[in-house]
Design goal:
single chain, 296 residues, alpha/beta, Rossmann fold, 2 domains, 4-stranded antiparallel sheet, 14 strands, 30% strand, elongated, binds adenosine-5'-triphosphate, transport, P-loop_NTPase, ATP-binding, ABC_transporter_ATP-binding, nucleotide-binding
Length: 296
Amino acid sequence: MKNRIEVEKITKDYGRGRGVFDVSFSVGEGEVFGFLGPNGAGKTTTIRQLMGFIRADKGSIRIDGMDCFEKRADIQRHLGYLPGEIAFMEDMSGDEFLKFMAQMKEIKDLSRLNQLKECFELDGRGKIRRMSKGTKQKIGIICALMQNPEILLLDEPTSGLDPLMQNRFIDILLEEKKKGTTIFLSSHIFEEVERTCDRTAFIRSGELVSVSRMKDIQKSRKRIFEITFQKEEEKAEYLNKHEDAAPKRENVEISVSGGMDGFIKELAGYEIGDVRMRMQTLEEMFLHFYGGEDDE
Ligand SMILES: Nc1ncnc2c1ncn2[C@@H]1O[C@H](COP(=O)(O)OP(=O)(O)OP(=O)(O)O)[C@@H](O)[C@H]1O
């Protein structure tokens, strides 16, 4: 698989620990790459360097072998880009703006645009100024997708969308993935990353802390058990014995990785009312990255 996006040791230092530091990753053709991280982690700063809006202080950042800053006009013309904060011409109606953007991008065939409008149930007749955040977001997404780009850069694409529209968007991403579009997507929303991405990078305080395949993440998932003990003293004993067990409502929650045999045999020694099991969510797996500096 050839790489379409290549980021090597880029640093953009805004001072006082803000910015991105020594960040490297690549995104292969047809790959969907998720960029997760808390507020202020450096997601937008990375995307702005990919678009050539700002220049890295150090390192190399290339799309299709072209330097993102030197060749920004070429790159910007060919990419589908959704900014985190969209600057609209607020006095235009949504439809006028979309038409204007299609002209700017020299798109003659408006069928994809109309298909996307329908998919997102966009009523573009009103002035953008009076539209809700979610409706503006839909317009931004349509702009990014309407020219059928081979590469998409999406900065928190579902922010402001209601759950139904978030799902529609995920379906569209999955269609794009089938077509072979290369997608770089920053997000706070674990579900959209989980359902769409092949690999996920996690960034915190400007540094990449992990890059993992979604398949490996799914494999290393723990099982989480919620156990109802019949006897209070047995519940207390179990909690005492297992540091990683925690009370949850009147029950006990514990995560178990690897073999189940020891766990089940131990439970058999107690009087149990109920046991429920679920898989750890992606959010729970990454939660420790969201904590303070003293976390793992
Ligand atoms: N032009 C700038 N000048 C100074 N500091 C900046 C500038 N742009 C971003 N920063 C700082 O760099 C850090 C990274 O910001 P960035 O917008 O990339 O984070 P983010 O991961 O996209 O966060 P969010 O999820 O909140 O959008 C933040 O501390 C931010 O305040």
